[in-house]
Amino acid sequence: xxVNRFRHGGICSSLQTACREEHRLQSLPAETNxxxxxxxxxxxxxxxxxxxxxxxxxxxSTALLSGVGLxxxxxxxxxxxxxxGADPATDAPATDAPVSDAPPEAPSPDxxxxxxxxxxxITSFAYGMQAHLYYxxxxxxxxxxxxxxxxxxxxxxxxxxxxxxxxxxxxSQIDLIVAGANLVGAKILxxxxxxxxxxxxxxxxxxxxxxxxxxxxxxxxxxIRYLGKVHAYEVWNEQNFSREWGGGKxxxxxxxxxxxxxxxxxxxxxxxxxxISGALTPTGFNDPNIAIDDVVYxxxxxxxxxxxxxxxxxxxGAHAGGFNNPPDDTPTKKSVPSTSFKGHPSFxxxxxxxxxxxxxxxxxxxxxxxxTEFGWSTLNKAKGYEYGADVSEADQAKYVVRxxxxxxxxxxxxxxxxxxxxxxxFVPDTDEKWPFGIVRKDYSPRLxxxxxxxxxxxx
Length: 459
Hints:
This protein is of the alpha/beta class. The protein has helices spanning 15-24, 62-70, 138-147, 159-162, 172-183, 212-225, 252-269, 294-303, 352-361, 393-410, 447-454, and strands at residues 126-130, 152-158, 187-193, 232-237, 274-279, 286-287, 291-292, 315-321, 368-375, 413-418.
């Protein structure tokens, strides 16, 4: 059985990076391919690690730059010049006001801007969608989110793309993304991943830096630049899968150390931003050289240094998918005729309840979970994702709405992000990310988008 790569959750920010990624990420060698060693349990609905950048990109014009709020402030009108023919002795306005002996009143000081300009605390449920915003008309794209009644947009930020040369970050695209999202009133979740090659002795960019403090330095710069404009940060992505952790041995303790540095850096800039631990992916497999089951991994995070994780994140991140199973189904409840992807908790949306049980057992019942990706595939041409044929577009619409209702109803989920908004615009229908999209290539809505728009948004 083919093993689907546990997808990264984002897209390259440049054609050059994408081409490099396409050639660099090769298939797992046969001798390490878990498909040779485990049943279909490992075949997942996480989108592939291939990062093909998708067709044509839309150029960003200077008109768009000014249109998303980056134009300079208007200049104040110049002071009125005196009439050169006026006689100051005779043309001055007369006054009968008595002359006072009191000293002149001191002018009021100009108002001083507050030192802190961060966000207000997040207190309501985060209805979100993950989008691809690089090289796009950001206001137009994010308006699809807000017009559906969703207040949050998620974008993956690849450190390796932003700062390929040490000390020379290129913020240009992120500037446009932040300004465009703010312009239409959307809150922003950044998922920050992938260390640059210069920070890793092996030269790879899919894992953490050798010196974790360097990650803290980057996050400090990121948080300062977008103070008051970015509302939440997810620290890494699917770190319980080896390819997301540098291709090496998975280590929950090392991740918690990275999270601690990230938390300290972000909170020092804005104490109100929400810091979310990197969302775990359901794998149903335990080999530290390949993948660790998400429930096992969260236990390992809580075991490390007597629960250090409790103090270094505001929420626990998770990914939830259902393969070809409705969101109410479980290993012991089957309501559909399909026979594949049944029996193991990893195949069901309600797998997240198992993660929650661990949080409660470790004394974290008050901490929220954020589901930073969830969605259902439909019919597609991607090898390994044939199960999408079991999910019609009407099913997809029904499932994402029901999943949102379940998650919101738990009471311990702080936000949910639909995977994905607009990837159909960039990938062909042979790409496994395509069928998860809820708008089409021409920006017209699929049934899932329309259903989510109609969903009552309870705070």
